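The aim of this short unit is practical: by the end, you should be able to scan a pair of folded records and say something sensible about each. We start with the first protein, listed as its amino acid sequence and then its structure tokens.
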Amino acid sequence: MKKQGLALVPLLLSAGIGYSQNTKPNIIFILADDLGWKDLACYGNKNTETPNLDSLAKHGIRFTQAYAACPVSSPTRASILSGKYPARLQLTNFIAGNRTDPSSPVLPANWKPYLEAREITIAEMLKDAGYSTAMVGKWHLGNHDTIAPWNQGFGYTRMIGKNGLDYYNYSVYIDSYQNEFVDNGKEYLTDKLTDYGIEFLAANKTKPFFLYLAYSAPHVVIVPRPDKLMKYFRKYGQSEEKFNPYYAAMVESIDDGVGRIMNFLKENNLLENTIIIFTSDNGGLGMDELGPTPTSNLPLRKWKGHVYEGGIRVPAIVSWRGKFEPGRISEEYFSSVDYFPTFCEITGIKRFPENIDGKSILPILTGNVVPEAERPIFWHYPHFSNQLGRPAGAVRKGNFKLVENYETGELQLFDLSKDISESINLSGDLKMKTEELYKLLMDWRVRVNAQMPEKNPGYKPAR
């Protein structure tokens, strides 16, 4: 592992939870792509069938205020693997994101379209701690061999290669760019990724393992398995709230995969020593893009590509049989940067990289929340998204959230405890709170060396 920049950080393990010399807990982290906050039945969706994820929530903790560190894919993935805010990594847009707006007074910020090789990933940390590590699915953090997953701590790698948006004509790189599986239209990609995940688990069931399973679904293009469609077509005609039946079928295939993994753990007596996390990399897509609108995030405002709640609030389920209270619904908020230090604490790793932004949420998971001052969490998206998002930043502290428009300097303040839709701007009425959060956001940007949008020399203001 890359050893530079390691710091000794004290860890306070909750009684009976986490690392022991005899039994290290296994970790399975399952990441959906563009899955919206209310796309699962256990989050109130009346149309999509997700019995396995509902069962995971029933036996674990369902979070109602979990956040992705960015409203688009690559930065959030980097935050999960590194424990750092995308702004600190200067990886602030999705790989290949380059949209501009000639009519805007700003140009997008400079950024790095990759996770640097020098960054220490949670896979490297766990590998050094004796874990077998696997990355299956969507990488989306750069394609050079030095920064591919097989050189970032993963011993078993099945990375989606060519035609990643085609669920029946794709390729998968097997541990290197020299070994490639090419599908010829026979194996549905979501199912294939589950196959690989179970293959890894079967080969490593007698030793501690970390599986990072990153599904590409339900990202557009919306291509479901045909055999799942008919029941959703029937529901479509009967539902008061119209939905995309093709998208619902894609979500169900993810649920199938989760069910197969849970069955494997049960059959091999691994459930009680395995922590399972399921979440999404950003909010759902609530507009037409490469086809009809996939989903709705209402009552949340906006969708993927925006720093409003619809773009960053995501489903998150955490389960550890016999360790975490089953069936609990938590309103505590946290960010995807927090997974890294949480895994370190659970597995007994006491040295990890400097400048980690995340904070272990193990006290939240165990229900032993220690009262403290309200913790601020941050977002920085200095780009124009494909989903019509504009350059903006945000900070949440307690129930209040501030959004800054980087083009105009406009500030918006919302009280999320009373206004989950972010429809009432309180910045004019609560000036001291607005100033407090704006200073937090500005100081944080300096602290992490956030790259800001640049002036557009071709901009001509309207007269």
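Turning to the second protein, read its sequence before its tokens, just as you did above.
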Amino acid sequence: MLRKITSISLALAIVLSFSVSCTAIQNSNSTQKGGVIGAASGAAIGGLIGGNIWGALIGAAVGGVAGGLIGNHMDKQANKISEAVPGAEVKRVGEGIQIIFDDKSGVNFAFDSEALTKSAKTNLNAVAEIFIEFPDTELMIEGHTDDAGAADYNMKLSKRRANSVVNYLKSKGVQSNRFKVEAFGETKPRFPNDTKENQAKNRRVEIGVAANEQMIQDAKAQAN
């Protein structure tokens, strides 16, 4: 039985005076979600949220029937990723996917290190196979650290962590032109850096999966 993928609910009341019921989005299918998000002007919302995968995926929303078709495609991919790496947090956001690799996923990092462990490589092998199976996507890779050490050093470390994941996925056959890398250092923790456990959770890489131009055009053609 497929592991349930987290569905992101949106209450959008500030863009172009457009108001949407959060409950309605939660209960809708992928096609309806795509239409609702598109109607609320995903690009404008992405600009307001900005700076992370969640905002970027909302901003990339196509909307309408085409957006729903893209959402259906992403549902299949998200389920496969969730099964391949049970410890990863896999979220369907807008018409894309957000994957969080932290200490629970096996794709995590030791203190002051960007080196991939054996378990990290095993899990990335599985993810690489899925990315190759679904080639019409762009991959946003974000690196993060805890707050130990200097902020400028952590920014560089987070970039190295993101690049470690990118380089490994490339070595397994994922095309290099699909990647966009961003580093956030210690600026976007998921948890307060108040314990060693929480610091370990904040040493992470996140991946956003969005439709590329080919998938968008194919979805629009199918919708018409």
